[in-house]
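Morning F.,

Quick status update on the modeling queue. The single chain you submitted on Monday has been processed. Sequence for confirmation:
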Amino acid sequence: MKRRSAALRAVARAAPLLPAVFAAGCLDTKPLDFEPVSADAGTDAPEDPICRECLSSDQGQCQAAYEQCRQDETCWTVINCALERSCMNPPSFEDRFTCANPCLQSAGLNTPNNPAIDTLLTLNICANDSCRSSCIKS
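Structure tokens below.
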């Protein structure tokens, strides 16, 4: 009985902190307006081979995620499309996502539990952190 009441007291002490924890970790998950765009519609910018080189380089920190993506057909389709459209160039995640959305749609990547999502997010973070000067254009 003592263990149970001690556990309840611990939960009661932590309860006021829960809204702050959840608010700090919240993402905007509202649905985007769908506007079908052909994956080959492209952007005005040509592919940036320097970004691909940084992501795939043996010396780079992104190489492991890039190789993991290469092993997943869906991930590979999306990253190639995104790089061809220069979708890694915009500085904000929202702009990169908007640019790559046709690539996601054409690859049939429409479920959040697809393993390719984790690899693509890892590549996005790596492009932002380790390959920023090669990929992201302000």
